[in-house]
Amino acid sequence: MTFTPALALVTGASSGLGALIARRVAERGSDLVLVARRRDRLAELAAELRRRHGVQAHPVVMDLGRPGAGPALLAAMPEEVAHRPLDLVVNNAGFGLYGPLLGQDAERLEEMLTLNVTALTSITRTLLEPMVRRGHGTLVNVASTGGFQPAPGLAAYVASKAYVLHLTEALWQELRRTRVRVTALCPGPTSTEFFDVAGSEHGALGGKVTTPEQVVDALMTALDRRRLPPYLVPDLPNQVQAVAARVLPRRLTLGVAARVLKQG
């Protein structure tokens, strides 16, 4: 089965994984709602998707890092698609901060947690409900292999991704008797803009660096299956690392992460 949503919504669509997911979904003939802050990039991507694939692509310029992001996003849906059900929602918007927690700007830290945790939860709650009522839909929350273990130097970021992972796993169980599919996409270190934003040169984080193409290929393959797992780690080396982080003694994994990130 080739998964072809009639209408998909992707947050954080202006670059990185979000932009690539949007391109892959458009290749299949799906219309899209593209959500991000950067108007110029969204406009360019929307024009590209229309030109290459003949789909509808609607940019929604929004800063999601605020309370009530879900209802605000629903209210901002373009008139052309406001009446149409969403078959796929990808919660990809988020960013990280690198360095000791006490050295990070308090305002920027709160912005990160609001976007990574509060906004994602609000969007999930708002857009998942009509899927359940309709008995159809797919939700992908983008977490991280960092969500499997604490990481000194990325303490609040990986804690936020642990929240996303655990929230999505719980939703998977709550909805398993419905026809709504839910999964947490958990890429390992990936060659995107993440580390530029986070302010870190430690792109590997002790794991194998994957390409955005590898991550999105794994996601699209999983979406083509009838059932989705509670979480998806795209490649074998990071799958092994994620399992190890859950079973090894916490002091050991903390020490390894601290050495890799040069923290303590």
Automatic annotation (TrEMBL):
* Molecular function via GO: oxidoreductase activity
The protein's superkingdom reads Bacteria
Does the keyword Oxidoreductase belong to this entry?
yes
A single GO CC term, please? membrane
Ketoreductase domain sequence ranges:
6-192
> Is Oxidoreductase there in the keyword field?
yes
UniProt keywords, alphabetically: Oxidoreductase
The UniProt entry, under Pfam families, shows: adh_short
Gene3D superfamilies registered for this protein in UniProt: NAD(P)-binding Rossmann-like Domain (3.40.50.720)
Query: Which InterPro entries does its entry note?
Result: KR_dom, NAD(P)-bd_dom_sf, SDR_fam
Family, similarity comment? Belongs to the short-chain dehydrogenases/reductases (SDR) family.
Q: What is this protein's record name?
A: SDR family NAD(P)-dependent oxidoreductase
Organism (species) = Auraticoccus cholistanensis
